[in-house]
Design brief:
This protein is an all-alpha fold and 98 residues long. The chain contains three helices and no strands. The structure holds zinc ion.
Length: 98
């Protein structure tokens, strides 16, 4: 296998995975990957890396924020209820309704 082609494909793989290569470059890379085991393995590793980064970056953060957001809402709701109850009790006691 042509070493220059391999270097070229390795350089272009990140752009190819992001689908930023031109039609001609895309055809060249795909043809090379099919015939070159080394570059094919590199392509597999890089494209699965991108997937892993995407899923580990996006999902846990969203879940984390959602969990904190829900907790904050529950705590705030509970505190608001306590304050309202306290104000009502204090008002009733101060004005001697009972
Ligand atoms: Zn190659």
């Amino acid at each position: 296998m042509n070493r220059f082609e391999c270097d070229l494909v390795m350089d272009l793989l990140p752009r190819y995975i992001d689908q930023k290569t031109s039609d001609e470059t895309t055809r060249f890379i795909e043809a090379h990957i099919e015939t070159c085991a080394e570059c094919h393995a590199m392509y597999e590793a890089m494209s699965s890396d991108v997937d892993v980064v995407k899923t580990t970056e996006a999902k846990p953060k969203r879940f984390h924020l959602n969990a904190i957001g829900k907790m904050a809402l529950i705590v705030l709701g509970y505190l608001a209820f306590l304050i309202v109850a306290l104000v009502i009790v204090t008002y009733i006691m101060a004005n001697g309704v009972f």
